[in-house]
Amino acid sequence: MATKLDTYKYLPSSTADHLGNLQIGVTKRMDVGLQGRHRSSTFGSSVEFAEYREYIQGDPIERIDWNVYARTDKYVIRRFHDEVNIRANVLLDTSESMSFQNMGSMSKMDYGCHLAAALMYVMVNQGDSTSLVTFDDDLRKTYEPAATFGALRPLLQGLEQIKPAGESNIQQALSKATEFIRGRSLVVVISDLLQDPRETLKGIGSLCYAGHDVTVFHVLDPAEIRLPQEGLIEVEFLETHDKMNVDIGDFRDLYLQRIREYLDDVRIGCTNEGANYLLVDTSMDIHDALLKRATS
Protein backbone atom coordinates (compact mmCIF):
# COMPACT_ATOMS: atom_id res chain seq x y z
CA MET A 1 0.00 0.00 0.00
CA ALA A 2 2.79 2.43 0.90
CA THR A 3 4.15 2.43 -2.67
CA LYS A 4 0.75 3.46 -4.02
CA LEU A 5 -0.15 6.20 -1.57
CA ASP A 6 1.18 8.93 -3.85
CA THR A 7 -1.80 8.28 -6.10
CA TYR A 8 -4.02 9.89 -3.45
CA LYS A 9 -4.18 13.66 -3.32
CA TYR A 10 -4.86 13.83 0.40
CA LEU A 11 -2.66 10.96 1.59
CA PRO A 12 0.75 11.02 -0.12
CA SER A 13 3.48 8.68 1.10
CA SER A 14 5.31 11.60 2.68
CA THR A 15 2.35 12.04 5.05
CA ALA A 16 1.69 8.36 5.68
CA ASP A 17 5.35 7.74 6.56
CA HIS A 18 4.99 10.11 9.52
CA LEU A 19 1.79 8.52 10.80
CA GLY A 20 2.97 4.97 11.39
CA ASN A 21 3.67 5.40 15.10
CA LEU A 22 0.51 7.34 15.95
CA GLN A 23 -2.22 5.60 17.94
CA ILE A 24 -5.75 6.94 18.40
CA GLY A 25 -7.50 5.60 21.49
CA VAL A 26 -10.78 6.21 23.29
CA THR A 27 -11.76 6.96 26.86
CA LYS A 28 -15.38 5.84 26.70
CA ARG A 29 -16.53 2.24 26.59
CA MET A 30 -17.03 0.99 23.04
CA ASP A 31 -19.36 -1.77 21.88
CA VAL A 32 -17.35 -4.99 21.86
CA GLY A 33 -17.03 -6.71 18.50
CA LEU A 34 -14.14 -8.82 17.27
CA GLN A 35 -11.10 -8.87 19.49
CA GLY A 36 -8.84 -5.97 18.72
CA ARG A 37 -5.73 -4.30 20.02
CA HIS A 38 -7.18 -1.78 22.49
CA ARG A 39 -7.74 -2.33 26.16
CA SER A 40 -11.14 -1.40 27.47
CA SER A 41 -11.69 0.08 30.93
CA THR A 42 -13.89 -2.94 31.69
CA PHE A 43 -12.65 -6.36 32.70
CA GLY A 44 -13.49 -9.57 30.90
CA SER A 45 -11.81 -12.78 29.85
CA SER A 46 -9.59 -11.92 26.89
CA VAL A 47 -5.98 -12.99 26.58
CA GLU A 48 -4.27 -9.98 28.20
CA PHE A 49 -3.74 -10.39 31.93
CA ALA A 50 -4.42 -7.33 34.08
CA GLU A 51 -4.28 -8.19 37.82
CA TYR A 52 -5.38 -10.54 40.62
CA ARG A 53 -8.14 -10.07 43.13
CA GLU A 54 -9.40 -12.17 46.01
CA TYR A 55 -11.95 -14.88 45.17
CA ILE A 56 -15.55 -13.99 46.11
CA GLN A 57 -18.28 -16.59 46.47
CA GLY A 58 -20.13 -16.81 43.18
CA ASP A 59 -17.08 -16.13 40.97
CA PRO A 60 -16.53 -18.74 38.22
CA ILE A 61 -14.36 -21.49 39.71
CA GLU A 62 -12.51 -21.95 36.41
CA ARG A 63 -10.98 -18.48 36.83
CA ILE A 64 -9.23 -19.36 40.10
CA ASP A 65 -5.46 -19.38 39.67
CA TRP A 66 -4.52 -22.74 41.19
CA ASN A 67 -0.79 -22.09 40.87
CA VAL A 68 -1.13 -19.11 43.19
CA TYR A 69 -3.25 -21.20 45.55
CA ALA A 70 -0.54 -23.90 45.67
CA ARG A 71 2.05 -21.30 46.70
CA THR A 72 0.01 -19.12 49.06
CA ASP A 73 -3.03 -21.18 50.11
CA LYS A 74 -5.20 -18.28 48.90
CA TYR A 75 -7.95 -18.29 46.31
CA VAL A 76 -7.47 -15.47 43.79
CA ILE A 77 -9.09 -14.64 40.46
CA ARG A 78 -7.21 -13.55 37.36
CA ARG A 79 -8.66 -10.38 35.86
CA PHE A 80 -8.19 -9.53 32.20
CA HIS A 81 -8.75 -6.44 30.09
CA ASP A 82 -11.39 -6.72 27.41
CA GLU A 83 -9.89 -5.94 24.01
CA VAL A 84 -12.09 -4.16 21.54
CA ASN A 85 -11.91 -2.84 18.01
CA ILE A 86 -12.58 0.88 17.69
CA ARG A 87 -15.11 1.81 15.04
CA ALA A 88 -14.44 5.35 13.90
CA ASN A 89 -16.90 7.58 12.07
CA VAL A 90 -15.35 10.67 10.45
CA LEU A 91 -17.91 13.43 9.85
CA LEU A 92 -16.53 16.03 7.41
CA ASP A 93 -18.16 19.43 6.84
CA THR A 94 -18.31 20.21 3.10
CA SER A 95 -20.35 23.42 3.25
CA GLU A 96 -19.41 26.51 1.22
CA SER A 97 -17.62 28.25 4.10
CA MET A 98 -15.00 25.49 4.10
CA SER A 99 -13.65 26.84 0.77
CA PHE A 100 -12.16 29.89 2.53
CA GLN A 101 -8.41 30.48 2.25
CA ASN A 102 -6.42 33.57 3.24
CA MET A 103 -3.32 33.24 5.41
CA GLY A 104 -3.24 29.44 5.34
CA SER A 105 -1.35 27.34 2.83
CA MET A 106 -4.59 25.69 1.69
CA SER A 107 -8.33 26.11 2.03
CA LYS A 108 -10.15 24.80 5.09
CA MET A 109 -11.73 22.18 2.82
CA ASP A 110 -8.40 20.87 1.59
CA TYR A 111 -7.05 20.87 5.13
CA GLY A 112 -10.12 19.00 6.38
CA CYS A 113 -9.65 16.40 3.64
CA HIS A 114 -5.98 15.95 4.52
CA LEU A 115 -6.92 15.59 8.18
CA ALA A 116 -9.70 13.09 7.43
CA ALA A 117 -7.42 11.02 5.19
CA ALA A 118 -4.64 10.93 7.77
CA LEU A 119 -7.03 10.01 10.57
CA MET A 120 -8.63 7.21 8.57
CA TYR A 121 -5.19 5.87 7.65
CA VAL A 122 -4.14 5.79 11.32
CA MET A 123 -7.31 3.94 12.32
CA VAL A 124 -6.81 1.22 9.69
CA ASN A 125 -3.08 1.03 10.34
CA GLN A 126 -3.68 0.32 14.03
CA GLY A 127 -6.11 -2.49 13.25
CA ASP A 128 -9.42 -0.65 13.56
CA SER A 129 -12.11 0.42 11.10
CA THR A 130 -13.35 3.77 9.86
CA SER A 131 -16.20 5.22 7.85
CA LEU A 132 -16.59 8.63 6.23
CA VAL A 133 -19.68 10.84 6.18
CA THR A 134 -19.86 14.27 4.49
CA PHE A 135 -22.40 16.89 5.53
CA ASP A 136 -23.55 20.50 5.17
CA ASP A 137 -27.09 21.11 6.42
CA ASP A 138 -27.76 17.38 6.09
CA LEU A 139 -25.82 14.15 5.65
CA ARG A 140 -24.68 14.11 2.02
CA LYS A 141 -22.59 11.02 1.34
CA THR A 142 -21.73 8.02 3.46
CA TYR A 143 -19.05 5.41 2.80
CA GLU A 144 -18.95 1.82 3.97
CA PRO A 145 -16.57 1.20 6.89
CA ALA A 146 -13.04 0.21 5.91
CA ALA A 147 -10.83 -2.06 7.99
CA THR A 148 -8.12 -2.72 5.38
CA PHE A 149 -6.02 -0.46 3.17
CA GLY A 150 -7.76 -1.87 0.11
CA ALA A 151 -11.19 -1.05 1.52
CA LEU A 152 -9.95 2.44 2.41
CA ARG A 153 -9.39 3.29 -1.26
CA PRO A 154 -12.97 4.45 -2.07
CA LEU A 155 -12.95 6.76 0.97
CA LEU A 156 -9.67 8.39 -0.07
CA GLN A 157 -10.89 8.73 -3.65
CA GLY A 158 -14.17 10.17 -2.40
CA LEU A 159 -12.32 12.99 -0.65
CA GLU A 160 -10.92 14.06 -4.02
CA GLN A 161 -14.43 14.49 -5.44
CA ILE A 162 -15.58 16.96 -2.79
CA LYS A 163 -16.57 20.45 -3.92
CA PRO A 164 -17.62 22.60 -0.95
CA ALA A 165 -21.15 23.89 -1.43
CA GLY A 166 -24.34 24.58 0.45
CA GLU A 167 -25.17 26.18 3.76
CA SER A 168 -24.09 24.59 6.99
CA ASN A 169 -26.47 23.42 9.69
CA ILE A 170 -24.24 21.55 12.09
CA GLN A 171 -26.91 20.95 14.70
CA GLN A 172 -29.26 19.38 12.18
CA ALA A 173 -26.57 17.31 10.45
CA LEU A 174 -25.06 15.96 13.67
CA SER A 175 -28.48 15.11 15.03
CA LYS A 176 -29.10 13.10 11.85
CA ALA A 177 -25.70 11.44 12.32
CA THR A 178 -26.71 10.43 15.84
CA GLU A 179 -29.66 8.53 14.38
CA PHE A 180 -27.53 7.06 11.57
CA ILE A 181 -24.57 5.74 13.59
CA ARG A 182 -25.35 2.47 15.34
CA GLY A 183 -23.59 1.39 18.49
CA ARG A 184 -21.08 3.31 20.56
CA SER A 185 -18.08 4.40 18.52
CA LEU A 186 -15.41 7.03 18.04
CA VAL A 187 -16.94 10.01 16.21
CA VAL A 188 -14.64 12.68 14.78
CA VAL A 189 -16.22 15.94 13.56
CA ILE A 190 -14.08 18.07 11.20
CA SER A 191 -15.66 21.49 10.62
CA ASP A 192 -15.17 25.25 10.85
CA LEU A 193 -18.27 25.32 13.11
CA LEU A 194 -19.59 28.52 11.56
CA GLN A 195 -22.93 28.49 13.31
CA ASP A 196 -24.31 29.85 16.55
CA PRO A 197 -22.36 27.90 19.20
CA ARG A 198 -25.58 27.11 21.04
CA GLU A 199 -26.90 25.28 17.98
CA THR A 200 -23.56 23.61 17.25
CA LEU A 201 -23.38 22.28 20.80
CA LYS A 202 -26.83 20.74 20.54
CA GLY A 203 -25.59 18.57 17.69
CA ILE A 204 -22.36 17.66 19.46
CA GLY A 205 -24.29 16.96 22.63
CA SER A 206 -26.61 14.55 20.85
CA LEU A 207 -23.60 12.46 19.78
CA CYS A 208 -22.13 12.48 23.29
CA TYR A 209 -25.48 11.61 24.88
CA ALA A 210 -25.71 8.57 22.59
CA GLY A 211 -22.54 7.24 24.20
CA HIS A 212 -20.04 8.04 21.44
CA ASP A 213 -16.47 9.12 22.15
CA VAL A 214 -16.57 12.47 20.33
CA THR A 215 -13.63 14.53 19.07
CA VAL A 216 -14.17 17.90 17.38
CA PHE A 217 -11.45 19.29 15.11
CA HIS A 218 -12.28 22.98 14.76
CA VAL A 219 -10.58 24.01 11.49
CA LEU A 220 -10.00 27.72 10.83
CA ASP A 221 -7.76 29.80 8.59
CA PRO A 222 -5.16 31.77 10.59
CA ALA A 223 -6.75 34.99 9.30
CA GLU A 224 -10.02 34.05 11.00
CA ILE A 225 -8.22 33.72 14.33
CA ARG A 226 -5.90 36.73 14.35
CA LEU A 227 -6.53 38.90 11.22
CA PRO A 228 -3.82 40.77 9.30
CA GLN A 229 -2.36 43.80 11.09
CA GLU A 230 -3.73 46.51 8.79
CA GLY A 231 -5.14 47.40 5.38
CA LEU A 232 -8.34 47.18 3.41
CA ILE A 233 -9.85 43.77 2.91
CA GLU A 234 -12.84 42.54 1.01
CA VAL A 235 -15.07 40.48 3.25
CA GLU A 236 -17.27 37.94 1.53
CA PHE A 237 -19.98 36.11 3.37
CA LEU A 238 -19.43 32.80 1.64
CA GLU A 239 -22.83 31.28 2.26
CA THR A 240 -24.70 34.37 1.01
CA HIS A 241 -21.97 35.75 -1.34
CA ASP A 242 -22.51 39.29 -0.02
CA LYS A 243 -19.27 41.36 -0.16
CA MET A 244 -18.03 44.38 1.75
CA ASN A 245 -14.77 46.38 1.75
CA VAL A 246 -13.62 47.20 5.26
CA ASP A 247 -10.57 48.72 6.92
CA ILE A 248 -9.10 46.19 9.33
CA GLY A 249 -8.04 48.94 11.73
CA ASP A 250 -11.66 49.99 12.24
CA PHE A 251 -12.73 46.72 13.81
CA ARG A 252 -9.65 44.55 14.46
CA ASP A 253 -9.68 44.90 18.26
CA LEU A 254 -13.41 44.26 18.48
CA TYR A 255 -13.12 41.28 16.15
CA LEU A 256 -10.28 39.71 18.16
CA GLN A 257 -12.31 40.12 21.34
CA ARG A 258 -15.34 38.50 19.74
CA ILE A 259 -13.37 35.62 18.23
CA ARG A 260 -11.81 34.87 21.62
CA GLU A 261 -15.25 34.82 23.20
CA TYR A 262 -16.58 32.60 20.41
CA LEU A 263 -13.70 30.12 20.71
CA ASP A 264 -14.08 30.01 24.48
CA ASP A 265 -17.81 29.34 24.15
CA VAL A 266 -17.21 26.44 21.74
CA ARG A 267 -14.31 24.95 23.72
CA ILE A 268 -16.05 25.14 27.08
CA GLY A 269 -19.33 23.95 25.58
CA CYS A 270 -17.71 20.91 23.98
CA THR A 271 -15.98 20.05 27.24
CA ASN A 272 -19.24 20.37 29.17
CA GLU A 273 -20.98 18.08 26.67
CA GLY A 274 -18.21 15.51 27.09
CA ALA A 275 -16.47 16.02 23.73
CA ASN A 276 -12.76 16.40 23.08
CA TYR A 277 -12.26 19.84 21.45
CA LEU A 278 -9.17 20.61 19.36
CA LEU A 279 -8.63 23.94 17.59
CA VAL A 280 -6.39 23.65 14.52
CA ASP A 281 -5.56 26.19 11.82
CA THR A 282 -4.67 25.49 8.22
CA SER A 283 -0.99 26.36 8.76
CA MET A 284 -0.56 23.48 11.25
CA ASP A 285 1.17 20.32 10.09
CA ILE A 286 -1.32 17.45 9.76
CA HIS A 287 0.83 15.14 11.88
CA ASP A 288 0.94 17.77 14.64
CA ALA A 289 -2.84 18.17 14.48
CA LEU A 290 -3.37 14.44 14.91
CA LEU A 291 -0.72 14.31 17.61
CA LYS A 292 -2.89 16.69 19.64
CA ARG A 293 -5.64 14.05 19.55
CA ALA A 294 -3.30 11.15 20.21
CA THR A 295 -1.93 12.80 23.36
CA SER A 296 -5.09 14.57 24.58
Name some characteristics of this structure.
296 residues; alpha/beta; Rossmann fold; six-stranded mixed sheet; 27% strand
Note the main sheet: 6 strands, mixed
Number of domains: 2
Low-pLDDT residue spans: 39-47
- Kindly report how far apart the N and C termini lie: 29 Å
Helix content: 25-40%
The helix/strand class is: alpha/beta
Order of helices and strands: HEHEEHEEHHEHEHEEHEH
Please give the order of strands in the largest beta sheet.
5-4-3-6-7-10
CATH class of the largest domain: Alpha Beta
CATH names the topology of the largest domain as: Rossmann fold
Shape category? elongated
Q: CATH homologous superfamily of the largest domain? A: von Willebrand factor, type A domain
Could you give the count of β-strands?
10
The overall pLDDT, averaged over residues, is: 84
Number of helices: 9
Descriptive notes:
There is one protein chain. The chain is 35% helix and 27% strand. With 296 residues, the protein is of the alpha/beta class. Strands 5-4-3-6-7-10 form a six-stranded mixed sheet, with helices on both faces. Strands 1-2 form a two-stranded antiparallel sheet. Helix 3 packs antiparallel against helix 4 (149-159), helix 5 (170-180) packs parallel to helix 6 and helix 6 runs parallel beside helix 8 (248-273). The chain is elongated and about 85 Å long. It starts with 12 loop residues before the first helix and ends with a helix.
